[in-house]
Amino acid sequence: MGKTYLFTVGPATPPAMTIDPGAEIEVTVDGAFDDIEDITEVPTPFTPASEGHPLAPVTGPIAVRGAQPGDSVAIDLLSIEPFGEGANAVLRDFGVLKEEFEEPAIVACPIRDGHAWFGDRVAIPLAPNLGTLSTMPPEGYRPSHAGPYGGDFDQRDVGVGARVHLPVMVDDALIFMADPHAAISDGIISGTGVECSAQVRARIDLNKASPVERPILEHNGTVQIVGYGPSVEAATEDASDAAVGLVAQWTGLSRREAYMLLGIVGELRIGTSPRPTMAARLIVDKGVLASAGWDGAVVPQA
């Protein structure tokens, strides 16, 4: 059986494994460039030419027994261990400064001694994450897009210690992972991080009849609400609107009060580099929410 890539995965893709809720899994997630022999031959991302190109192999789908639309899953990322050569690249006509850096280029970033070594000479501390973590949208996954299901949202904090809440949109949830990084920045101005393969250990819980409407992250004492849209501004507005609603719901503050509070304590981060669907997240300290009356429950209980 051939590999599944981000441009081919969909509701009809046979599950790679089926698990019970609460199970712990350990899988290998291959790097985005693992099957690329010549970076100069990679087409411009998000164009028709890019569909069918072997970028970003998918691990999954992972079927969760009993999962149905209207449920949600909580994925705890217990460990992400990058391995292999590692690489950073500029892709054709991609990134914030694509007019200046038009031609593709790639730099080796070997992974050793707790660092990724850019050009084998600049030490970058490892901060591994998954660029893609998703449940399956019912209409099928659009290559490298983000949405309420998650997708290729490139949020830096989707790393070790994070709990990622995602809505179940089809039977069995059909979770998939791709695009691991040894290190990556928020914003990703050049378009890629340290792309590599990784061994991932995760636990997947199922919350029955407890929907979430978008990705919500818990990480390092914070709650992070993800928004998305066709521009940075639209993604920012979507994340902000959702965060105001959730904080008001969780605390009993009015929407106006929640809006004002988040203007003081909400930290905005842009995840993805320029693409048709941008993603952003608003980061809120759990301690502040607790002092406003939040009981600590991110997902409503049935």
Q: What is the secondary structure topology, with strand pairs?
A:
Layout: E1 17-19, E2 23-29, E3 59-64, E4 72-90, E5 105-108, E6 111-112, E7 115-118, E8 122-125, E9 129-134, E10 146-147, E11 150-152, E12 163-167, E13 175-181, E14 195-207, E15 216-219, E16 222-229, H1 232-251, H2 255-265, E17 267-270, E18 278-285, H3 286-291
Helix pairs in contact: 1-2
Radius of gyration: 19 Å
Number of helices: 3
Give the N-terminus to C-terminus distance in angstroms. 40 Å
Most strands sheet: 9 strands, antiparallel
Amount of helix: 10-25%
Provide the structure class. Answer: mainly beta
Low-confidence stretches are none
Q: Please state roughly what percent of the residues sit in beta strands, choosing from under 5%, 5-15%, 15-25%, 25-35%, 35-45% or over 45%.
A: 35-45%
The helix-strand sequence is: EEEEEEEEEEEEEEEEHHEEH
Can you offer a commentary on this structure?
By secondary structure, the protein is mainly beta. The chain contains 3 helices and 18 strands. Strands 2, 4, 5, 12, 14, 15, 16, 17 and 18 form a 9-stranded antiparallel beta sheet that branches. Strand 15 and strand 16 form a beta hairpin. The protein is globular. The mean pLDDT is 93.
